[in-house]
């Protein structure tokens, strides 16, 4: 059984590492320390120039949740148009209402734009903030979403394996289920066996030091403890280990 390995990349450099590690596909974002936001068109252009795997691009204007104002949606819509024109193979997004239900109006509009450009419309883990059950999945199917990234409504895919299995069974080839959330080389086989998914998503991140993070009078840390003065980036060794673990299934 072939299982697609998608790597979450926060930069052009991350994408090159994932490519060298033989990833099947990437989700390209920026500012992963706040969950990811929209990357630049320059980043997408460079990744498409120097790799040949599918590049799915996140559209997200800020950190925190997924309940967006009309102004935020307008910006996301135009960014989607721009990034599709720069080679994005898919657009990753999520729109919720204040009650955690899926915002059908905004979702439908973005799906229409993406499909008009013959690309994939993917909902990210905003889905896990909904009921994350078969009823919510049916709504995504009706809205035309091609794939959903989910941990089965739990913090990790391992914890949500029972719901992931139920979602896979309910999907019935109408939508793709991409399992994500704490997946790595040591647990990928267990998650795949327990859920029946044929696609997994992983950050495969490690930490790198930047000596200019902490100065004499100011500091720009976003991590603390052992990771003070560091930033997260895709690890070639972790990508390769994950691919090897999946290949053994």
From TrEMBL:
Transmembrane segments: none annotated. InterPro entries: CutC-like, CutC-like_dom_sf. Its main location: cytoplasm. Keywords: Cytoplasm. Gene3D superfamilies: Copper homeostasis (CutC) domain (3.20.20.380). It is found in: Cytoplasm. Belongs to the CutC family. This is PF03932 family protein CutC. The gene is cutC.
């Amino acid at each position: 059984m072939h299982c697609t390995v998608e790597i979450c990349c926060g930069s052009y450099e991350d994408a090159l590492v994932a490519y060298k590690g033989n990833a099947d596909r990437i989700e390209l974002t920026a500012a992963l320390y706040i969950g990811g936001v929209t990357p630049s068109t320059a980043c997408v252009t460079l990744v498409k120039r120097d790799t040949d795997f599918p590049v799915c691009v996140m559209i997200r204007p800020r950190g925190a949740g997924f309940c967006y104002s009309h102004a935020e949606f307008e910006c996301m819509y135009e960014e989607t148009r721009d990034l599709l024109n720069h080679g994005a193979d898919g657009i990753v997004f999520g729109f919720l209402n204040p009650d955690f239900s899926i915002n059908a109006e905004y979702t439908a509009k973005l799906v229409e734009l993406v499909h008009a450009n013959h690309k994939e419309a993917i909902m990210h883990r905003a889905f896990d903030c909904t009921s994350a059950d078969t009823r919510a999945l049916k709504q995504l199917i009706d809205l035309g979403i091609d794939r959903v990234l989910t941990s089965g409504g739990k913090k990790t895919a391992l914890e949500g394996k029972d719901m992931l299995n139920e979602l896979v069974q309910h999907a019935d080839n109408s939508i793709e289920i991409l399992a994500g959330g704490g997946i790595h080389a040591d647990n990928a086989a267990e998650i795949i066996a327990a859920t029946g998914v044929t696609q997994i998503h992983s950050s495969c991140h490690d930490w790198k030091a930047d000596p200019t993070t902490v100065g004499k009078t100011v500091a720009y840390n976003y991590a603390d403890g052992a990771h003070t003065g560091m930033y997260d980036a895709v690890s070639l060794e972790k990508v390769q280990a994950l691919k090897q673990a999946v290949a053994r299934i």
